Amino acid sequence: MGIPIEGRFVLNRIGLRHFCALTTIIIFMTLSLAMSASAQGSFSTGDSELENWIVEPKLRFDEWLDDQRPSLEIAFDLSMRIVEKSGGSGTGHVNWVGIDLIDQLHWDGFPIATILVQAYAVEVKDLPATPIIFDDSRDWQLQWRFVYLDFDRWSHKGISWKVGHFQVPFGLEWTSDTTGTLRQYTNAKNLGVKADWGMSAHGTVDGLDYEVAVTRGSGNEYRDVSDNHLFAVRIGASPGHNLSYGVSYFDAQLTGQDAPIGMSTFPKPDRVRYGVDARWNFPGFQLLGECSRGTNDDLDVWSALLEANIHSPDERNLAYLQTVGSATKGVSDWDERVQAHLGVKRLIGPSLSLEAQWTHDLELPGNAPLGDTGVLQIRYRF
Amino acid sequence: MHRTLRISTAMITVVLGITLLIPLSLVHGQAAAEKPSGGFVRPDRTTPFCSSPTYDAHATQLFSDLEFDDVVEVNFSINSQLRKRIQADLGADFLPYDLLGKHVMYFPATKKKMPLGMMHFRKMAGSKFGLVTVGWRLDLQFNLIDFMVEGRDPATIKIMKIRNELNNKFRGASSEQLISWLENESAQLSSLGKRDLEVAQMDDGVHDVLGIVVYLARLTRTSAKLCFSEKKVAASRDETDETDESSMKDHILHFVSIPEELIEQVVDLQKVSSSELKVACAKVKSQKDEDTSEICCESISATRVIMSGSSEPYYSIDSKMQLAGTLELRWIVNPQLELIAVHVLGSSADMSEAVKARERSALEQHIGASWIPNAECAPGTRILVNRVLMLCQILKNSEH
Fold first, then answer.
1. For A179, which of B8, B17, B48 is closest by C-beta distance?
2. CB B32 to CB A15 under 8 A?
3. pTM of the predicted model, to two decimals?
4. How far is B132 from A240, CA to CA, in rounded Å?
5. A351 CA to chain B: closest CA distance, Å?
6. Contact across the interface for A319 and B56, Cβ inside 8 Å
7. Fewer beta carbons below 10 Å: N end or C end of chain B?
8. Are B280 and B333 part of one and the same domain?
């Protein structure tokens, strides 16, 4: 039957109010970020008293650690994300506190492996769509980002071996740093998994970067449900050059559990994808593109992303506009989802980053009502 | 209502887009090279460690003329104190924002861990296309040998095409010459630099990137010298650093302290066992000559340096000298028991750079000296030389 006309009007009024509030916040944030361009000099030359109070003990700890074990580095990562969606669903939050650790293991004077541990305690509160790794709309979870041992002793010979929880090698995501950032590519939603437990061989041979991974297909937690598995490979050329490109292949039988953040359901765990991606650089801006075709169980799917971004020469300021589309072949037609993301990111000083992103639905499956989502993030790593 | 919402959304998208893009375009217009970006007072932590790049694969490119089996990575830290020394050495305010913090020096090495040189990589903001990565290869005397430059700027490819010609200029360039190739000690190529490097006819993009290459040549050489020609001097034996990494750094320091003309002949380093050293040192102590017998055995370590062209080993002796602070020295002695090199390994924090330089110069005057028995009225530094040579003689005798 749907919502009565009056009820729908009330909902829309609430939605409009939230939307206006969100817009005000985003504009305010944008202006603050823009103004911080000129203020960046003062931000970067010295710490405020509050910052000194926060980081001084850690700096002393770092100095001690450097004496004890020069290869070991530890950073604390704190972040607060505010999510507002039009339609009156209220304000949601994602907060996290995490530890990021890297070290090198040596054998007979030679480094044999790099160990990386990124463990995060993540809290969600009233998100428009709570990821299913959380039991409730207000919940805490331990999230493993990357936790791996990379046996890289022979990386200069073109081969390293990684074991643990790491990024699935596919598409643009593989060449970009998207850990804990608002700017994301398609892997989480398109593949159903962004990082997974398993092992991979990777390296660079004759200017070609490659990674071949065999993993569990269970995402955040290691789970052996039935025959769940994942195989992914990406080969790319010239990542540091003006034009770079790559091809990827993905074949997985996922557990159907632990959908990544940003995805509320996990309907089709048997997935195959063929993908191509490219990155083209011009003075001051970049064009990035990615598309993939494949199947979810027996249904045909496609996914595509186009991004234009501009960045400052030191790459500490970034603004981007993304259009992301995906579709599943229905009985008679394609069910398409198209969204536009407009975002900005600024790194201020040695620890602080500010990000804002606005997502606008251009098309949703089943004629679902279109909406807008605004997200602000403040992150402090020290 | 939905329609209104969508129209306002579209309008705000456009307005917000313009608001976002314009300030960034303005910021972009100012080349980062023009403003000092090294203002941070502590290491940059904004990026997760997983995205820290590793560069050992570039050894095949930068050391293509040599055969190596491994690439040894040695971490080194640039703290605020060292940053000041680098800044003073370069005589410039302009430093990259990521100067502070952990860095990795890569040493391609043979199976027996003989380092063949070193390479270091750094990123710096270009003027149009974002960050430029420059890797410099140095020999063990910190001379510039080769470089590579990588980035989204097409100028990087043009520079790599004339790399051999540029290397010929860089290899013979003195520090003063490198300074003169830059505009006001920034990372901008001067007109003299364009002329000397024979790139005046090339486009501005090449000049911009080449300015960064020259600037990083100086920065890499200075920071490598300060970090790898010296080591931390512990105030007491308990504080001695025994990690795998520090022992590798010590190992590499051996090669830095060996005279350039001998390095290629080094086949192996064999540390003298503590029991053998104890016996040898006791023999020096039992000498009638009072000056020689006052040797401080606790602070001495010794290594036999095996050379391909010599049937007998060279000796490398480390000792400490107490002045206004502690000075740690490495003495290199040939099989004929002549002092061929003396290297200052480091000093304690309380010793000034001026005192260190003065002592270094006093010690270097004894290069070429051989043992003088019962050297009466010898200056203090000559007594030190005598003790070391005496110790080497005893070690040599014990081999037969």
1. B48
2. no
3. 0.83
4. 9
5. 5
6. no
7. C
8. yes
At which residue do the structure tokens 């540390």 appear?
Answer: B271
Instruction: Tell me the sheet residues that pair with A139.
Output: A124
Other CB atoms within 10 A of residue A321 CB: 17
- Best of B47, B50, B157, B238 to disrupt the A interface (most A CBs within 10 Å) is B50
pLDDT in tens, B273-300: 888 888 888 888 777 666 666 677 777 8
One domain, residues B188 and B304: no
Residue B255 forms part of a structural domain:
yes
Per CB-CB distance under 8 Å, the chain A contacts of B2 are 12, 369-370
- How far apart are the CA of A57 and the nearest CA of chain B, in angstroms? 13
CB spacing of A12 vs B130 below 8 angstroms: no
Q: Within a domain: residue B15?
A: no
How big, in percent rounded to 5, are the helix, strand and coil portions of chain A? 20, 50, 30
CA dist., res. B72 & res. B116, Å (int): 11
Decide if B150 contacts B156 (C-beta within 8 A): yes
Q: Classify the phi-psi angles of A107: left when phi > 0, otherwise alpha if psi is within -120 to 50, otherwise beta.
A: beta
DSSP classification of residue B237: G
Regarding whether B224 and B192 lie in a shared domain, the answer is: yes
- Selection from A257-261, B247-251, B337-341, B356-360 with the highest mean pLDDT: B337-341
Looking at the fold, whether B361 and B379 belong to one and the same domain comes out as yes
Question: B243: which chain A residues are within 8 Å (Cβ-Cβ)?
Answer: 68-70
Chain A nearest C-alpha distance from B151 (Å) = 5
Q: Is B91 exposed, middle or buried (0-12, 13-18, 19+ CB in 10 A)?
A: exposed
Instruction: Tell me the residue range of the domain where B54 lies.
Output: 38-228
Cα angle value A74/A77/A80 (rounded, 5°): 175
Residues B342 and B306 in one domain: yes
Q: What are the chain B neighbours of A287 within 8 Å (beta carbons)?
A: none
Residue scoring higher pLDDT (B5 or A138): A138
Rounded (10°) CA dihedral B153, B157, B160, B166: -60
ipTM of the complex, rounded to two decimals: 0.83
Any domain includes B281: yes
Task: Set out the domains of chain A in order of their start, with CATH numbers.
Answer: 5-381 (2.40.160.10)
